[in-house]
Design brief:
The protein is built from five helices and no strands. It is an all-alpha fold. The radius of gyration is 18 Å and the shape is globular.
């Protein structure tokens, strides 16, 4: 009996303008992406951040469960996949939000972002020796 060689997919740089910025990987389907994010939280985040992150991820995926607009779905999955890569690569510490993303946010999203900023600042004032 002949053994078959299993070919594995690998990311390609075809179509990218420079070798420094490879073409983005294919989007993961929602459920595997959801699981990947929760695993990344479990592996890379402190317990308090993990609890907050898990609840937020669960509520976002739950609220987008019935979205039918394909453009919205692709944008949603793309941003969450980018987030998972940042958490796994530990590149999210100390980064600032992109001004283009802030400009695209709705008033409700800006309000939530402001509330989050206030909660982080309050936590930092309560426990100044602890890194947030």
């Amino acid at each position: 009996m002949r053994h078959a060689i299993r070919l594995l997919a690998s990311p390609s740089t075809l179509g990218s303008s420079t070798g420094l910025n490879p073409a983005p990987l294919a989007l993961l389907p929602p459920i595997p992406l959801y699981r990947r994010i929760l695993r990344a939280h479990r592996k890379f985040l402190p317990s308090e951040m993990r609890l907050l992150g898990d609840e937020y991820v669960k509520s976002e995926f739950r609220s987008h469960r019935n979205v039918e607009n394909p453009i919205h779905i692709v944008g949603f999955l793309n941003e969450w996949q980018r987030y998972a890569q940042e958490v796994e690569g530990d590149t999210w510490h100390g980064t600032k939000l992109d001004t283009d993303k802030i400009d695209k946010m709705s008033d409700q999203q800006l309000g939530q972002l402001y509330e989050l900023m206030q909660a982080i600042q309050k936590k930092a004032r309560e426990d100044p020796e602890r890194e947030i």
